[in-house]
Amino acid sequence: MSTKNLALVVGSYDDTAAASDDYEALRSGQDAGGYEVVGAVVLVRGKDGKVQVHEHGDKSVGHGAAWGAGAGVVVGLFAPPLLAATAIGAGIGAVLGKIKKGHDEKKFGVDVDEYLAPGTSAVVAVVDDKWADRVEKALTRADKRISKAIEADDYEKLQKALEQSADDVVEQINS
């Protein structure tokens, strides 16, 4: 799959079960050939503000979306500070800083407090932009949805940085 034209699709949920259901529907839609997803996760933010990343089932949405290569990239593109909280390393930090600066300068960023407020969940997916509308519509249970173009260069650089530090990131997340 080409990473030239990517979009970040986010659905926000007051109910974690609804987010999980939409994630499974997203997988089913991809399996049925309706669209392709580069990577997707369910994020759950507790009332205390702590965020957990949930990937449901044995296989993730997307192609090879293991934590280091896929889910971490999705989280980093959605909200660089969420990934920075667990991803230690100069390479990852530099890329996350660039992405965050780009979000701020271009007013690109998705407002984390709006789309992942304490006590809520979100499905976050990276897709080829030609599938963004279909993926957004697949999130039928979402209270609100948004899709935003993302820089393919950001995706590729963050993916490489995470691949180089995947074991460290996984260890931090699991601790």
TrEMBL record:
Q: What is the lineage of its organism?
A: Bacteria, Bacillati, Actinomycetota, Actinomycetes, Micrococcales
Superkingdom in the source lineage: Bacteria
UniProt name for this protein = DUF1269 domain-containing protein
Which stretches are transmembrane? 77-97
This protein's UniProt keywords: Coiled coil, Membrane, Transmembrane, Transmembrane helix
InterPro entries reported in the protein's UniProt record: DUF1269_membrane
Coiled-coil ranges per the record? Answer: 132-172
Q: Which organism is it from?
A: Microbacterium helvum
